[in-house]
Amino acid sequence: MKNFPLYRITVIVTMFLKFVIQLYFFHKKHKTWTTNTYDRWQALLKKQAVEYRENAIKLEGLMIKVGQFLSTRADIMPDVFLNELADLIDKVPPVPSNISKKILEAEWGQSLDSHLSYISDKPVASASIGEVYKGTLLNGQDVAIKIQRHNIYKIIHTDFKALRIVLWIARKFTNIGKELDTEALYKEVVSIIGDELNYYKELKNGQYFQRRFHDSTDYYIPQFYEEYSTGKVLVMEWIEGRKVTDIPFLHKHKIDRKVAARKLFQFFVDQLFDYGMFHADPHQGNILITQDGMIVILDFGMVGEISKEDAQHIRQMIQGFVLDDYNLVINQLKELGFLLPHANKHKLQTLLKTYIDMYIEKDIHHLDEKLVEGIFQDLKQIVREQPIQLPAEFAFLGRATSIGLGVLTIIDPHIDFMALGKPVVREWLDKDEERSGNIKWHFIKESVKPLLSLPRNLNEWLHAPESKRRSEETRQFQRFDHHRYLLMMSLSYVSLLLTLAFYFISIIIGNNQLQFITLSFTGLTFSFSLMTTFLHRRWINKAKQSHYF
């Protein structure tokens, strides 16, 4: 019954409508929030999460993929959702072993013992699209054998039809749906998840990442055995390890959680700060850690791609924020597809500059609840009124980023992204100067460099005459302040871009509470960006008066 197309579509669409109606009437009924209101809200979320999990396990397919995404959002998702959907990561009910092994034999065109001396009786992991068995080749090599689930191709394509109906309803009857390019989003989902159904495509993706990160000593990508792989079977090197978020395992083997988080952070930024493919499904079930602390990356079925042009546009947008060039910012947002064709560029540029000028008049030390609330409301108003959208290709980039942030915060709850980001920023600026020869990038890079390393003339300064030392000390502090402000602004606007992406993803999900939470994070990064810009401007005015410039 679950594989009958009309039944699957009816269950998925009905559940979506039911959830939307429940949330709508809840907010209609509860205008003010009290402790009792919060308890009822949690009860509603739990009820919806349980219903979703039960339907996902029953129907499998695309519902499990969405559930896996929700279960990895430890940074913003309510605990009730995380707890209910956690089992969807790698505990999907398995297909009977005899059916999966028949698929394996059919794909090989030979009996199992023609290639294997051993294969496990049951799968060691069962996911939404495939199951993994442990095996041993005739040459004694232990391998992981990934076999596509029975009838999964038909199931996924039926779910695509249900998704099209859901997006059509959202587009016709909700304000959020009208603001989003749902058609482009649908095509992107079909393209990326459709590629997951072709294991030969996944093999090629994995080989790409092997070549890209072959010289890394912090993370490892298993070898693939192309001669044993087909469209429905993928054979790769077996690696002994546990989930990277298995904290007891980390403690048992004395693995430093901060070091593990740093390694994984580097893997994420190596993909997301440069053009090329990126792992679009980096949840905790796809990232292992070995006893010696090596990070192992698995499952390259779902990948996205950042074009060279988009990567450059992102960098130029940040450059515009840092150099107070709002026209450049708006142009890059348009080039990236964040602005719809009818966007009024001049109005958006004026709005952005007006809000920045308005809030930078406030001293950062006087940042209070009222000011923050005002920033939140203004930002929300801009998003509602202006023709802003999240392009489909950035939805999956934002998805991968948010999943990665969730995993990192589980490994190291006190992770310092600013400290980890300093060397990344320096490398980023070096690369952009080399590629473009841009003078402004050269200015920023040279400004940031002293902040990222100790002064090399420290000993000479200590032995200089006192008057010269004081003069030099003043200049050094001026340079340090200038560099510090530039770096803070660069990082704050990078954070603003990412949090905006998270906000639009929460819109796509359609959960009002998630929208509020992600909007709050966006407001914080926005306010921080405004304050750093104000301090930098004030410093420049003082520096001009003292003839530093």
UniProtKB/TrEMBL annotation:
Keyword Transferase listed: yes
Pfam family, one: ABC1
TM stretches of this protein: 6-26, 485-510, 516-535
PROSITE patterns assigned: PROTEIN_KINASE_DOM
CDD domains per UniProt: ABC1_ADCK3-like
Gene3D superfamilies assigned: Transferase(Phosphotransferase) domain 1
Keyword Glycoprotein set for record: no
Molecular function, one GO term: protein kinase activity
InterPro entries registered for this protein in UniProt: ABC1_dom, Kinase-like_dom_sf, Prot_kinase_dom, UbiB_kinase
Keyword annotations of the record: Kinase, Membrane, Transferase, Transmembrane, Transmembrane helix
Annotated family: Belongs to the protein kinase superfamily. ADCK protein kinase family.
Name of the molecule in the record: AarF/ABC1/UbiB kinase family protein
Organism this protein belongs to: Salipaludibacillus agaradhaerens (Bacillus agaradhaerens)
